[in-house]
Design a protein that fits this description.
Elements lengths: L7 E10 L3 E7 L11 E4 L2 E10 L4 E7 L1 H6 L10 E6 L18 E11 L2 E8 L12 E4 L2 E4 L2 E7 L2 E10 L1 H6 L10 E6 L1 H10 L3
Antiparallel strand pairs: 1-2, 1-6, 2-5, 3-4, 3-6, 4-5, 7-8, 7-13, 8-12, 9-10, 9-13, 11-12
């Protein structure tokens, strides 16, 4: 489990395609504190550490991603040099600064607009139709691993289906310690809906 509070910005050092795809990720995390088999959320996707080490410039760890994971997330577009948001798994007693995040990506959305609003950046995202009912004003959503609060939601018809477009403000601090300072309109993003919303929707279904 995670909280959606980013603790490092990693960078893809290499990509190797075998049966699965292996990513080597540069990080500032001390490899002595990372156990093999540990879970790390990589731009919102929970991945398992299979190797680790120290480099000349930065430390690193390696993960494998299956074809299923590549097809259901943005990981298929990662290449050498891609910056990604990192968060280590929550420990008992840690401060819960964001919200409960599983690291299981529910769908891929996209950034449709970015503009300045005061000192913040105002992002507008578009979510797939299947996730529309789970996104609500003032609710929580995890985008590329970051716990964010939804400002407003508007339903729009795109290619014959209704989708949710929703706004989020990202403050300067968050921009500086995550990948959001470099994000642009048109970028694809990993979305994880709020766990509470998932269960409420399930309970509301008729038998």
């Amino acid at each position: 489990m995670f909280t959606g509070i980013i603790t490092d910005v990693g960078r893809i050092e290499s990509v190797e395609t075998r049966g699965d795809t292996r990513f080597v990720i540069e990080t500032s995390y001390d490899p002595n504190t990372i156990a093999l088999g540990a879970s790390i959320a990589c731009s919102g996707c929970c991945l398992t550490v299979i190797e680790k080490g120290r480099g000349a410039q930065r430390n690193w760890f390696a993960v494998d991603a299956s074809g299923e994971t590549l097809g259901c997330t943005t990981l298929g577009s990662w290449k050498q040099g891609t910056a990604i948001n990192l968060e280590r798994a929550l420990k008992a007693g840690d401060e819960l600064g964001g919200h409960i995040v599983s690291g299981h990506v529910d769908g891929v959305g996209k950034i449709v607009d970015v503009r300045s609003e005061g000192d913040s950046l105002r992002f507008t995202f578009e979510a797939p139709a299947v996730l529309r009912k789970f996104i609500a004003p003032k609710g929580s959503v995890t985008i590329d691993g970051t716990s964010l609060t939804v400002n407003e939601v508007n339903d729009v018809k795109v290619d014959g289906e209704m989708r949710a477009r929703f706004g989020v403000n990202i403050i300067p601090h968050t921009q500086s310690v995550t990948t959001w300072g470099q994000a642009k309109a048109g970028n694809s993003v990993n979305l994880e809906i709020d766990m509470l919303a998932r269960y409420v929707a399930r309970l509301a279904e008729k038998d």
